[in-house]
Amino acid sequence: MLPGFSRRALTWVLASTSVLLLPTLLPATPAAATGTTAAAAACPAAGFVSQHFHSRHNGVDIANAVGTPVHAVGDGEVTISGYESGYGQWIRVLHPDGRISEYGHMIRRDVSVGDRVVAGQQIALMGSEGQSTGPHLHLRIWGDRSTSYGIDPEVHLAERGVVLPCTPGSGPRPRPLVHPAESGRVVSARSADGRLELFAAGADGIHHAWQQEANGNWSEWEALGGPGNAELALAPNADGRLELLAINGNTFQHRWQSSPSGDWSGWETFGGGGRDTAAGVNADGRIEVYASGPEGLFHRYQVAPNGGWSGWEPTGGGPADSRVEMEKAPDGRLEVFALNGSTFQHRYQTAPNGGWSSWAGFGEGGHDLTVDHNADGRLEVFASGPVGVFHKYQTGPTSWSEWEPTGGPADSQLTSERTPDGRVEVYAMNGTTAMHSWQTAVNAPYSDWAPFGTGGTEVVAATNADGRIEVFGTSHAGTFHKWQTGFATWSDWIWLNNSAGPAVG
What we know:
Layout: H1 7-21, E1 48-51, E2 60-63, E3 69-71, E4 76-84, E5 88-94, E6 100-109, E7 116-117, E8 122-126, E9 136-142, H2 153-158, E10 186-190, E11 196-202, E12 205-210, E13 222-225, E14 231-236, E15 242-247, E16 251-256, E17 268-272, E18 276-281, E19 287-293, E20 296-301, E21 313-314, E22 323-328, E23 334-339, E24 343-348, E25 360-364, E26 368-373, E27 379-385, E28 388-393, E29 404-407, E30 413-418, E31 424-429, E32 433-438, E33 450-454, E34 458-463, E35 469-474, E36 479-483, E37 494-495
Antiparallel strand pairs: 1-2, 2-9, 3-8, 4-5, 4-7, 5-6, 6-8, 6-9, 10-11, 11-12, 12-13, 14-15, 15-16, 16-17, 18-19, 19-20, 20-21, 22-23, 23-24, 24-25, 26-27, 27-28, 28-29, 30-31, 31-32, 32-33, 34-35, 35-36, 36-37
């Protein structure tokens, strides 16, 4: 951390430079998209063009009254939703073809990092924040990462059937896809107000720390009790309240926020003991929980959003005593992956909110796994074993590549997260080293593994409200973290709030 700067102050300094720095980091348009017909676009906002794109104005300005709705120009995922001193409130949306739309000077934002939006969906209200002489939308379009300047938005929209000035439609407002948080001995997810919450499982139970404000500094550690040496999972209820699940060999317990971003309940029994657990959110907002044990995998789910729970149901098998992770397909179906030392299997919902397929073979056994999604929605799976890390990815809605070696640390703990420009980044930690690898462009192959720190026992990555990744690692000495100081640079590893926190064996 820079001398004399608080973590929060540093965040704002970085944010104020991000508009200038990020163009060189933007992803290239994937080769597969070259020559294809451009998808239809939507009108970004009603109003008149007060300034066109030119060599000294990287974008187009659409002027209208404060509070005029701003709409996404295409389908995509929100990768930035925050504040920047020159831009005011601003949003970035990554589209499946690798292009990025950027919206600035709003008075209100209606979407958060990670939300899926569709063309025509309202994402903000027009304002005059930042360096602005009057209420307007500043719209930018980014394409090829090798350039330092954007694409003329009027040309981009015209190629897709929208000519400025234009009149927006009402726009669909689908429920955003909620992708599962990584499970493990240490877990993190954002509260409804954007603050990261962190839980780490020690021999004496679960310990809890939280950001005191979004993107900000951390609280002291709080001991919660609960199962010792547990595996943990986090998932949001439909109303935004987080639910924490903890399982060890003897017991399964859970606790939840009493209100969005609020205080937590005490521990309540959730089932018997087991090896591991994972939780995800159905398309209708109901939480679904999987747990592994000596007889395979079982699952349990909310019978209504924010509601009560079903009983435990067998899943027809699955690898015994396996590590478990969940991810979500682009259409909202959950998919579960389970790995033990000899086998790897997966199963998936046959329809959103629906029943499940049988278990199917996915590969040989290994040590740990992580699952994420590409910018175009395809799932990406990494698994570690005695000779390093391998990965496998969807080549279509129901088809997969073969396993490919990537190198990396042997028998490592794995986690993954999405960078602000939509590239998957993978982190691997074993007892002697930590390394990371990242996609070199959106939906693209990966870099070589690079050093990321010394060894430890567990690792998990989460995304701050401003889109920066934060990585948490554990060891026999305690729990520590490292975060992006820009969108391609990192802090050093340090303790949270200068306190070692719980040791995780």
